[in-house]
Every structure is written in C-alpha cells, then in structure tokens.
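Input (structure):
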C-alpha cells in the first residue's frame, strides 16, 4: 500500500487494539486476549486512528495545508466525543443500572412488578483522559514511523 496517510491511520488503530492486551495484564495480572477486540479501554483506538492520520498528514503536507486543518478538526471532534460525550453516557449507564438493581430488589421484597425489567446498559463506553492520551501517543509514534 502506497498511501502513508491511510496506512498510518489503520496501523495506529491496530496497534492501539493490540496494546490493550498487555495493558489489561498490567492492570489485572491476568491475560485477556479478547481485550484486543473490545471497544473502550487503554489506549483509545479511535484517538490513535485520528492522531495517526493527523500526524501523517502534517508530516506529508505541512502545517499550512487544508488537509492538516481538516484532520486536526476531525481529531478534536473524535477526542471530545470519546472523552466527553461517550464517557458521560457511560456514567449515566452506571446510575441507571444501579437504579434498575434497586427496583429489582424492591420487586423481590414486595413480590410485585413495578416496572418492566430493562436490559443492563453497557457502562464502559467512553475513555478517560489517560486513555485518550495513550491513543494520542500511539498515533504520533505510528505516524512518525510510517511517514519518516
């Protein structure tokens, strides 16, 4: 493939997903090979993808180029979404799951059905700032490696 921008983006994502395996081991002291297939976690693969693309664009075309402006702008949106919007949605899911558990406990104690039993929501949706930073580092390193 002779498209360093696309290659940088794809390899940044793959590298971030693969790095989730040793990071999981470091945190939990057990191997989880499926960590590479899961969204969320350290490092952020969405951030790595966009920063890899942005880094490659910068190195290939320079600062004063509309391509760099576009990739930088989209990177900021992706990072804001990962660390802001989706993280807040995950925190909302935690509260809703706790509320659901409380309602289910009350249902059992009262032998009644107060509400329809909802499906448990996924709580790990977004990224912490350190996970986003990890994605930034991965994207920069891969972008530098591919274009230089």
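Output (sequence):
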């Amino acid at each position: 493939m002779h498209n360093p921008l696309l290659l940088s983006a794809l390899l940044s994502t793959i590298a971030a997903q693969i790095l989730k395996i040793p990071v999981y081991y470091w945190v939990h002291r057990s191997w989880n090979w499926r960590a590479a297939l899961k969204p969320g976690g350290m490092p952020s693969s969405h951030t790595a993808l966009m920063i890899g693309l942005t880094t490659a664009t910068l190195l290939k075309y320079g600062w004063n180029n509309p391509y760099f402006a576009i990739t930088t702008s989209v990177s900021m949106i992706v990072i804001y979404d990962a660390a802001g919007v989706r993280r807040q949605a995950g925190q909302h899911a935690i509260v809703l799951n706790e509320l659901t558990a409380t309602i289910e406990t009350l249902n059992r104690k009262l032998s009644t059905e107060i509400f329809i039993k909802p499906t448990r929501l996924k709580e790990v949706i977004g990224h912490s700032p350190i996970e986003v930073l990890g994605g930034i580092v991965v994207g920069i390193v891969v972008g530098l490696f591919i274009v230089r």
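Notes: The longest helix spans residues 66-110. DSSP finds four helices and no strands in the chain.
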